Amino acid sequence: MSFSTFKSANKLITGQDALEYLVQAVDQFKIQKALIVSDQGVVKSGTIQHVLNILDIEYSIYDSVKPEPELEQVQDCIDFYHTHQCRAVIGVGGGSALDIAKCVAALAGQTGNIHDYIGTDKIKNRDIPLIVVPTTSGTGSEVTNIAILSDNANQMKQGIVADALLPDVAIVSPIMSVSCPASVTAASGVDALVHAIEAYISIHHSEITDALALQAIELIIEYLPKAYALPSNLLAREKMATASLMAGLAFGNAGVGAVHALAYPLGGKYKMPHGVSNALMLPYVLKWNVLGCAERLSRIAVLLKLEVTQNHMHNAEVLVEFLHRFCEQLNIPAGLRNFGIAEQDIPALAAEAIKVERLLKNNPRRLSVQDIEAIYSEAY
Ligand SMILES: NC(=O)c1ccc[n+]([C@@H]2O[C@H](COP(=O)([O-])OP(=O)(O)OC[C@H]3O[C@@H](n4cnc5c(N)ncnc54)[C@H](O)[C@@H]3O)[C@@H](O)[C@H]2O)c1
Ligand SMILES: [Fe+2]
Fold first, then answer.
1. What residues contact 107, with CB distance under 8 A and at least 6 apart?
2. In the chain, which end has fewer C-beta atoms inside a 10 angstrom radius, N or C?
3. Is 39 helix (H, G, I), strand (E, B) or coil?
4. E strands of the chain, at which residues?
């Protein structure tokens, strides 16, 4: 049987006035008291106020989500949800806050421990309304059925994948990301770029995910440098908000591959921000992937009007070089050696990365543990 499915948050609201839709969404679900899940960066920058100004219901704010949050934070937030007698969840933040919000909405009504739900399709249903408002243009978490949490015991990032995590409403406004620090704009923007590229070369891509991925790539290459250069550039913020959402739709359905698989142990063991670990691995993994998807990478090079020839292999290599420079211009530090990683740790990193079969199975080139060690060595 051959078919592909396409999943998304139920409603996507985009544009500069998107937040206004909150009133309607709250009304639709008859929400009387909501838990707002957020973090200190979003609260201290004042950005959360854009949401609070519009809400005309009771709410309690859980504002202590940590970047790259740990699995245990879900239970802490579920306890808060019950203590404050909330009846709905509104996530306001980057991927970290949204992933916690998604898990809380899906699990506050269930028994068991968060560890029981690691993996695919372990959560069966969700009764608690879930609205999400992203404040970074990166993860696409607002439209995916995925939450990625840090597992400190195993020094890994773990994926919880279940349709119960798909939000009811995603409200994506450029106003929410204006206060992002430049380093967050850069890292989360490159994460979105990696989502789009990996979805496009995934062996599980479809015509639908291709269209979303290509449009996202074009937008990110044009507007991420502009948002980075001038944080208040609302046009650039809006294009990035849309592009990261599109990249989220693309990878949420086609999957990501080896760039993410090799980035996971860097996040888990060395606490590197997700976007930074992806940026570090991107050129090296893609170079390795050229053999498996030269034509597709070549099409991206043509789309971006790079100096292409009739030779796909050559064009793919031109793209890899271009992406390397693109990340450099955004001042994302390169080289594993600059993150306190010892060269002798590479075999241990590779042993962890090879376990991320959930993602490696989407990659256009099959990788052995020796291949992964070689890629880490090149990225060192
Ligand atoms: N669920 C998914 O589909 C998915 C996909 C990719 C990544 N992720 C996960 O998302 C997390 C990373 O999310 P992220 O890159 O969005 O960063 P983040 O949510 O970790 O935020 C990074 C930092 O930026 C601050 N910040 C965010 N928005 C801000 C704003 N508007 N103003 C001021 N400060 C702001 C935060 O306070 C935080 O300190 C990782 O845990 C990653 O594994 C999830
Ligand atoms: Fe990602």
1. 74, 78, 114, 117, 123
2. N
3. coil
4. 11-14, 33-37, 58-62, 88-93, 119-120, 130-134, 146-151, 156-161, 169-172
Whether the CB-CB separation of 21 and 169 falls below 8 Å is answered with yes
Digitized pLDDT (tens) for each residue of the chain, 380 residues in all: 788 899 999 999 999 999 999 999 999 999 999 999 999 999 999 999 999 999 999 999 999 999 999 999 999 999 999 999 999 999 999 999 999 999 999 999 998 899 999 999 999 899 999 999 999 999 999 999 999 999 988 888 899 999 999 999 999 999 999 999 999 999 999 999 999 999 999 999 999 999 999 999 999 999 999 999 999 999 999 999 999 999 999 999 999 999 999 999 999 889 899 999 999 999 999 999 999 999 999 999 999 999 999 999 999 999 999 999 999 999 998 899 999 999 999 999 999 999 999 999 999 999 999 999 999 999 99
Question: What is the pTM assigned to this prediction?
Answer: 0.97
Phi, psi of 220 (to 5 degrees): -65, -45
C-beta of 242 in contact with ligand 1 (< 6 A):
no
Strand order through the sheet with 58-62: 11-14, 169-172, 130-134, 88-93, 33-37, 58-62
Best residue for ligand 1 mutational test, from 65, 246, 274 (most atoms within 8 Å of Cβ) = 274
Ligand 2 centre to CA of 260 (Å) is 6
The two tokens of residue 101 are 């919000």
The residues with which 33 forms a beta bridge, in sequence order, are 58
Residue 222 makes CB contacts below 8 A (sequence gap 6+) with 239
Distance CA(117)–CA(106), nearest Å, equals 10
The token pair at 223 is: 């507007």
CB–CB of 346/376 below 8 Å?
Answer: yes
Q: Is 95 touching ligand 1 by the criterion CB < 6 Å?
A: yes
Report the amino acid identity of residue 180. Answer: C
Ligand 1 site-directed mutation target among 99, 177, 278, most atoms within 8 Å of CB: 99
Q: Are strands 130-134 and 88-93 parallel, antiparallel or unpaired?
A: parallel
- Given strand 156-161, what is the order of strands in its sheet? 119-120, 156-161, 146-151
Retrieve residue 239's tokens. 């294009």
